[in-house]
Amino acid sequence: MSGRARWVAFAVVFGVLAAGLDSGAAQTAPRNAMPATSTAEDNAAADVGAAAAAPDEPPSKTFGPEDCKRLPGGNAPLNRLTRMVGAMAVKNLELTYLGKPLHQLAEEDFADLAGLLEQCKEVDSKLAAFQSRRLKALIEDAKTTRAVSLEWFEDVRIEVLQMSGRSDDIRRLHDLMTELNNRQFEMTPADLRKYFAWLAERRDALYAEAAKRVAPARPFDPGPTSPSGSN
């Protein structure tokens, strides 16, 4: 066989072997490849799907017609409040629901609310549970803000009761009344009225106390009205 023929034969054999190796690699690559990592979107979709497929938990209590009369039990706009993204205004704690001001709703009231909405108003169980949790969170946040102002006023009360009617005491009391007005959005309107009335009463008492300390002026004596020695 000539040299050229040998080179041709070698090239053919090499090509066949290379093709076989490539074919084997193509078959084994998928088995050796790492699986694709799931994305956050995939995980979120899986969570939503699992939540949707999960059976609803049965209500812990059964409510009858008399229980349903507790709804709404006031003027609080439940749907609007629970759709809010931000915090609830403290003044809204005076709104009522389930027959109570919002700031008086207790843990058992929130526990009953979801069942009442579901059984009495035929609200979807998941929505009813959400509204109960959301209303509780809004109220607790507003109550925390209010508690700070109520604690502040207790310190103010102690300070004012120690005042004695001096001019600097009266000026300080007027400053406290101004600060109270500035805190009006951190308490309920009823709180503001009660505290302002108390400070006004103490202010009047201090003014009365200060008036006692001023010595009364003696009557002016103009002297005799007739010239000396005249009759």
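Second entry:
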Amino acid sequence: MTTKTPTNETNTMSAKERDSLREVVRLNGRVAKTAIDEYAATLRARMEENLSKIFDEDDERWSELVAHAKQVGHEADEKLKAIAKASGIPMENAPGFMCGFINRGRYGLRERRDEVRKAGNAEIDARVKKARAQLERALAAKHTELLAGSLTSETAKAALAAMPTPEQLLPPLKKRDIAGLLSGHPTALMLSVESVNDWEEGY
């Protein structure tokens, strides 16, 4: 019994198959972008939930401690009043002692909530930007792979290979580049000449 050897016809992807795969890649890309936005919205919602959370002083985790603190505070206040009375200080002007449960901590201050919200949104925006960039690179790589398989001429293949990468389009700054910027604009990058001199020559 002889085994039939697969031909190039069965191993080669057809143009229709490539078009179908490219469409699938595009669809998956759109779904992934939506998922990134949904995740960012979830992170923002969690942040707002944490910022607005109010704790109950009767919570079993600390209710006993709160009761003890209140009792100590009450006793201290009574002693202060006794000292003030013995010293001839009018009660309406006497010092006192108050001990109370703070149910929101520093997030009870609007200024603090605004600070945390601003920092949190900046971090989420940075994560979204990074995720989108990674997704775009993955989609571009897959599209390039599918396109490369359809190229037959050496000229077309060479043109594809000659396309610059992001790293080639935006190479890292070297020490001499930073030094040149600083010489013209000393505060442009918030760096000192001394810090630049500490960099490795090959960076």
